[in-house]
Amino acid sequence: xxxxxxxxxxxxxxxxxxxxxxxxxxxxxxxxxxxxxxxxxxxxxxxxxxxxxxxxxxxxxxxxxxxxxxxxxxxxxxxxxxxxxxxxxxxxxxxxxxxxxxxxxxxxxxxxxxxxxxxxxxxxxxxxxxxxxxxxxxxxxxxxxxxxxxxxxxxxxxxxxxxxxxxxxxxxxxxxxxxxxxxxxxxxxxxxxxxxxxxxxxxxxxxxxxxxxxxxxxxxxxxxxxxx
Length: 228
Prior knowledge:
Blueprint: E1 5-8, H1 17-31, H2 38-57, H3 63-77, H4 84-94, H5 105-113, E2 117-122, H6 126-135, E3 144-147, H7 148-151, H8 158-165, E4 176-180, H9 183-193, E5 196-200, E6 216-218
Parallel strand pairs: 1-2, 1-4, 2-3, 4-5, 5-6
Helix pairs in contact: 1-4, 2-3, 3-4
């Protein structure tokens, strides 16, 4: 099928957010004087952060609350008396500096930019995502980026997709492909919006019967070049 507009998720699709997250978390902890038991603290942080992001995607919390609440809960659980606001700011300062690319991301973006237009649609914090993209080697191939904080909506909300494609030079649902790693946001959102999707599934997770399947599935980004 011929596609001329490629919408990519950013974190854990093109950029290795898990690696960046760990580096930034450790940096933030060190900056507020915590240097021991960091692996245990990070596991708790991941649990609380994931729960808050799910609430945000469901419209049950705000981005400003999420930024601080994940650290407030972390410190509450571990009985640590450190300012969560200060820690949240230190973490957000560190995150744009810790840019790690997914394998073959640059080559794929370069290839697709020669076949059509490439845009980013990401649930995240505006300033952080802009800085992370600009510090990566992907920026020359990405024509536009839509971030949920600025849009006021998050994937899988169809309104976020509508907001995003307004930035494209040309848009036709039949020739647009969404590429992302999360079934519940990237693939479900694309389905509701009426565009094709490709699930980046490096862990080879099986799709459950209740989940919306994508039109394509890949385990390595390099595979997509042969499919479009």
